[in-house]
Give the backbone structure.
Amino acid sequence: REFVIVLGIMVPFRSSIADWNHVPTGSMKPTILECERVFVNKLAYDLKVPLTTWHLAEWADPARGDVVIFRSPTDGTRLVKRVVGVPGDVVQLVDNRLLLNGEPAAYTPVDAAALTGLPAADRAAGRFAHEQLDGLEHLVMALPDRPARRSFGPVRIPADRYLMLGDNRDNSGDSRFFGLVARDAIVGKVPLVVASFDPDRGYLPRVSRWFTHL
């Protein structure tokens, strides 16, 4: 009986209020690394009926720069990406440089040696920068030696749709491939890396990455 009671509390809580999500790939490097567990705030934008996509109330919409969990338009898999375009925006990518409503995003270089927890091979192969969206900075990564889709658009985003990109721009399956994401497919906002484990070292904890705010 006690187990049923706990289950009856935890399932609706994780479905509608807060959850965690395992990140198995490096598509959000250097912001989120492989084998990190992120916190998902499901009340960031709305309140849903537990175990459904029905919205009881909405009080905010995803903003440019937010890191979110959403269901893939292709197969429903839960993915983590960054919101780059919101309804009404015109978004274009030219040789890995964003243009938002005709204005180029600002980029400033980053010393790869300062990127906490990033494997040495990634630091050697990657090119890193701070990208500014709406005055907020976040890290992005490029892999110049890897074949990738570095240009697309321009794309005008209709109502109730969002354009998602991974921060690892040359190694991310995102809106360049599966298209725009519906508003009701967005599960919640990711503000925090809760835990991090290094698969190259037998899944030992990356202690410096625990409880990292995004």
User: Anything to note?
Assistant: The CA atoms of residues 20 and 183 lie 20 Å apart. The mean pLDDT is 89. The helical segments are 2-16, 120-125, 175-178.
